[in-house]
Amino acid sequence: MSTLVSIRNLDKTYQRGPERVDVLHGLDLDIERGDFVALMGPSGSGKSTLLNLIGGLDTPTRGEIVVDGQRIDRMSPGQLAQWRSRTVGFVFQFYNLMPTLSAQRNVELPLLLTRLSAAQRRRNAAIALELVGLKDRASHRPAELSGGQQQRVAIARAIVSDPTLLICDEPTGDLDRASAEEILSLLQTLNRQHGKTIVMVTHDPKAAEYASHTLHLDKGNLVEQTRHAA
């Protein structure tokens, strides 16, 4: 496997009034293409900050972030927005679906920024919904779906543009155990059978077991890496 994400000497500092908050300190990290990485750590350890930096939702105070050969730490906000639309799919704890739109239309939303025709958008969205097991729910609105089904729609929306990288922030944090296991199995399938590189923040050790390995952060430092059996 080749390296997809390369991070060197990464610092992230926030200014909260007169107080300076150092979140990440000189962090070095490589994520291989095809990896499924779980990020764990106590509250305030920097895991969500690191996830946002990898996904181009935030920029570092210092250091280098290379994703698929591109230095995203040097990009302008406009360049980052274009890069995210091409490269990254996002899955959040709260599904962020449009309540007035059907599952099909929700999945099509990222494609509105492309030059695809309406027919192509519908076709691609249908393929993504079939991939997550919701082909028969395409016309349903979010209120007509369970929490697990809504998260499947959100995953379909994340993969409909065929991104290189999936960024998942507590994707099972709002689900019961059975629904959570279904979502984690789906992510594992996307990783193992479809080659998606996944970086997932989770507080749940059972969720982390679905990843290929776990990175443990504490006080902005990478303190441990655990590789899981296949």
Automatic annotation (TrEMBL):
Annotated CDD domains: ABC_MJ0796_LolCDE_FtsE
Domain ABC transporter: from-to ranges: 5-230
GO cellular component term, pick one: transmembrane transporter complex
Entry-linked Pfam families: ABC_tran
A GO term for molecular function: transmembrane transporter activity
Superkingdom: Bacteria
SMART domains, sorted: AAA
The entry's keywords: ATP-binding, Nucleotide-binding, Transport
Similarity comment: family membership: Belongs to the ABC transporter superfamily. Macrolide exporter (TC 3.A.1.122) family.
Protein name from the UniProt record: ABC transporter ATP-binding protein
